[in-house]
Amino acid sequence: MKIAILGGTGSIGEGFALRWAGKHDILVCSREIEKAVNAADEYTNILLYRGMECCGIKGCGNETAIQEADVVVLSVPYQGVVSLLKRLNPCFKDQIVISLVVPMTKNIWFEYTPPVQGSAALEIQEVLPESVKVVSSYHNVSARKLAKLDLSLDYDVVVCGDDENAKQTVMDLTREIKSLRPLDGGGLASSYMIESLTPFLINLAIRNKLSDLGVKFL
Ligand SMILES: NC(=O)c1ccc[n+]([C@@H]2O[C@H](COP(=O)([O-])OP(=O)(O)OC[C@H]3O[C@@H](n4cnc5c(N)ncnc54)[C@H](OP(=O)(O)O)[C@@H]3O)[C@@H](O)[C@H]2O)c1
Fold first, then answer.
1. Ligand 1 contact via 30 beta carbon (within 6 Å)
2. How many domains does the chain have?
3. Nearest CA to 5 among 73, 84, 95, 51?
4. How many C-beta neighbours within 10 Å does residue 9 have?
5. pLDDT tens string 44-69
6. What is the mean pLDDT of residues 114-126?
7. For 187, which DSSP code?
């Protein structure tokens, strides 16, 4: 598959590029092509240095990458995602779009601050063409751990979406990442539950002097 990672130059985008490049063509996207190309070269070198398989990691502008991709990962901060997608709307057709976006703000502690639609995923679906299949997942995965390829991530990953085939594709992609277990979380309307766990996990980590907390259902 061809996977475009919007915001692929940032913290969690790197981890997805490194973890999926062994089996898929990765398009690292940025608002600045030069930044995307540099990041793609850096990720390729990490894999080559480790002697790991790499189908290809290419740096691209957002528009080209979306048009070429089967799957588009939204790895940009909530504050920028809606205006970015409104601008890029004509580039979408029927791709699977994975939202890991968490709308949260920091007062004394981190708080979940969803839009009127109820969650970032539902707002994103509203902005994109109807033919695009939005799947919501990975909100509770640590960027730092994802990029550390030696780590097996003993986390559960809840996957929400209204299109069953798209949800299965994302669950299969999740199984490709060492030790992550995908769990079907129901329709996209349930996304607010997993999005809202992220500020809670961050607050737990701060209060209890822990880091990179994830979720595991036993
Ligand atoms: N970090 C985590 O551990 C983690 C875990 C789970 C979920 N998430 C979610 O994943 C998403 C990305 O998180 P992150 O920590 O990787 O973010 P980040 O490093 O701060 O940003 C990722 C990339 O987004 C682009 N970007 C930044 N501001 C933007 C704006 N206003 N408009 C459009 N693009 C913008 C930048 O790429 P260019 O400048 O190259 O375009 C940047 O490299 C967020 O929605 C976050 O809630 C993060």
1. yes
2. 1
3. 73
4. 25
5. 999 999 999 999 999 999 999 999 99
6. 98
7. S
